Amino acid sequence: MAALPPLNALRAFEAAARRGSFAAAAGELNVTPAAIGQQVRQLEALIGSALFEREGRTLRLTERGGAALDRLSRAFELMGEASAAMRESKRAARIILALPFDMASLWLAPRLAARSSAPGLEIITRDPLTALDEGADLAIIRSADTPTGQDSQLLLRETLSPLAAPALARQIRTPADLETLPLIADTSIPLGWTEWLARRGAYGIAVQPAFITDGTGPAMALAEAGAGLVLGRKLLVASAVNEGRLVSVFADGDMPDGENYWLAFARGRRRSDAVNLFAAWFRAEIAGAVDAADEL
Fold this sequence. Notes:
Layout: H1 7-19, H2 22-29, H3 33-47, E1 52-55, E2 58-61, H4 63-92, E3 95-98, H5 101-114, E4 121-124, H6 128-133, E5 138-143, E6 150-164, H7 166-169, E7 183-186, H8 193-199, E8 211-213, H9 216-224, E9 229-233, H10 234-242, E10 247-248, E11 255-266, H11 273-294
Parallel strand pairs: 3-4, 3-5, 7-8, 7-9
Antiparallel strand pairs: 1-2, 5-11, 6-9, 6-10, 6-11
Helix pairs in contact: 1-2, 1-3, 1-4, 2-3, 5-10
């Protein structure tokens, strides 16, 4: 490939030829008219031929200058398109994922840390449906019913399990013991201790939570500290159970959460390869977590 003249000189000539003056080219390229003139003269010296006929302040292209203008303009257009494509490719590799805060912090974060390679990931913990409308690539939605208006896939049906720190768990023999022990209520879960007792047929037991939280993270922290019993989502408490920080209080104490996890995409929006690969990885991780949770 033949050596090219300096790019700045070519750019100065193309802008001056297209705009019809050094001053207009200088304004476009954010330099001085003198700098444009110097670059053009440098280019003319390199090719050994005049590119402009100068009549006062008026520029007129020579035959050689006119022949070069169209090709140079197209070349700069192509470079602009290539630059835009590279920027778009970089954006395409970034994935915007919306999901509940407790799932992001308790379940997803450790798995991302262990993943050897991952695309750029932006995590949003506000309302996932709203985030999809605002440009998120995919979302994890907790809902009893199939989310409307989106392309959704069921990930899992969540289960609640009564849990406590080991020392507190040793004090529990029957559901009636809950009447005298501190309980933790997590308002982010649609069902609570009253529903759990009813499902076991343990009527007539009055329970009053000692602590009320609006998220799984604080509820688990209280439970791990021995402050009370908690109904925990098995997917989110699996690490705490595996590590012995929490133990299941009743062997047959699980009950449906009342909500399911859905993987959702904005309907009608094209999915990049990076999004599809990440979604496949996420589904595989969920499947593995479900198998592990079933063994708890």
